[in-house]
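Example 5.3 — GST C-terminal domain-containing protein
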Amino acid sequence: MELIVWDGEARYGLPSMDLKSLQMMAYIKFSGAPVTIIKSSNPFRSPTGRLPVFKCTDGAFSDFNQVATFLRKQNFSCDYELSPKQCSEVVAYEQLLLEKLYPALVYLWWVEPKSYYDVIHKWYFSSMPFPHKLWYPRKYHQGYCDLINSMFDDPDDNQLVETELHKQAQECLTMLSNRLGDREYFFGRSPSTLDAVIFSYLALLLKVDLKVPVLQNHIKACPNLSRYVSKTIQRFFPSG
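Solution (predicted structure tokens):
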């Protein structure tokens, strides 16, 4: 089994600069599955033409849930100790994060001009091989701009869009902080699928120094979330 993911950035202490890559990497680490992880900045290394991609006897998957399902069939899971109620909570939280936190993340990375041009585009352009670097970042930028525009009746009102996205994300982060409390992980002392998902969002928002650090500052103001990210990286990704 092999997982090809977007490369990380040592300057930020991140094993990957991509949300889906981080989620798959975290799940594999948490479950103990014997998967070879290969870091790349070239999507054409993947048989699907995009990263991340998980290659196994059943084919090539780029969807987190497909990867988790396959590994569970091979008896590798980090959810064996969860009750049916907790498994339902995992699904509910995944959907909540997709609705409340994901739009803010992609906005801050790919749409907000200062962060996009000075941080994100610069990283992808310097990391990707020629000629892919000339069009891949712009393709992602345009796709995420279209996504954010589709969410609002007046997408040209940049202040309204940014304020609403930040508000929804900050409320979500506060709720996650309250839910985590003093626990090591969201369901106790062992990480689960939910931790793989949440950790990946928090790590990208906390570790990358964007030009608009509103969510980074919010996470820093929740000490338990900051500790959660740092301890997870130290335990499971000590060398990046």
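Remark. The two ends are 20 Å apart (CA to CA).
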